[in-house]
Amino acid sequence: MRRGGGGGGGGMMDDEGRVEHAQIPNSFGHELRACLRCRLVKTYDQFRENGCENCPFLDMDKDRDNVVGCTTANFTGIISLMDPNRSWAARWLRIGRFIPGCYTLAVSEELPEEYQGMCQDNDVQYHPPRRA
Ligand SMILES: [Zn+2]
């Protein structure tokens, strides 16, 4: 396993400590999971170690139960977004304000209610999946 030095954190940080883009999945096997709130795709281990860059309030890096609860292996399609602000796909997927990374086109599960509550507590919008 490759580990970043300096301890803690993940992804690239700018001077203000903000994450500039999400970790890119380092494998495309069955352990890939998508965040149920923002649809960011990473491996289970990446969520476990660094949480979701868009949804730090879900505390996935603090408790792996949160990784299991807030992500799913059940998703369809992946797109890689390097410039979400200018991407029509990102606007369509309503991820234009999320950080660049890999996202899935569709998840079929809803974020469990207790985590939807955490979104509300943090003034974060949650869009349930579109019904086919
Ligand atoms: Zn997320």
UniProtKB/TrEMBL annotation:
A Pfam family matched in the record: Spt4
All residue ranges annotated as the Spt4/RpoE2 zinc finger domain in the record: 32-108
Keyword Lyase recorded: no
Keyword Flavoprotein: no
Coiled-coil ranges per UniProt: none
Record keywords: Metal-binding, Nucleus, Transcription, Zinc, Zinc-finger
Example of a GO biological process term: transcription elongation-coupled chromatin remodeling
Major location (coarse): nucleus
Localization (cell): Nucleus
Single GO MF descriptor: RNA polymerase II complex binding
A single cellular component GO annotation: DSIF complex
Superkingdom classification of source: Eukaryota
Physiological role: May regulate transcription elongation by RNA polymerase II. May enhance transcriptional pausing at sites proximal to the promoter, which may in turn facilitate the assembly of an elongation competent RNA polymerase II complex.
Entry's family note: Belongs to the SPT4 family.
Name this polypeptide is given: Transcription elongation factor SPT4 homolog
Source organism of this protein record: Lolium multiflorum
Lineage: Eukaryota, Viridiplantae, Streptophyta, Embryophyta, Tracheophyta
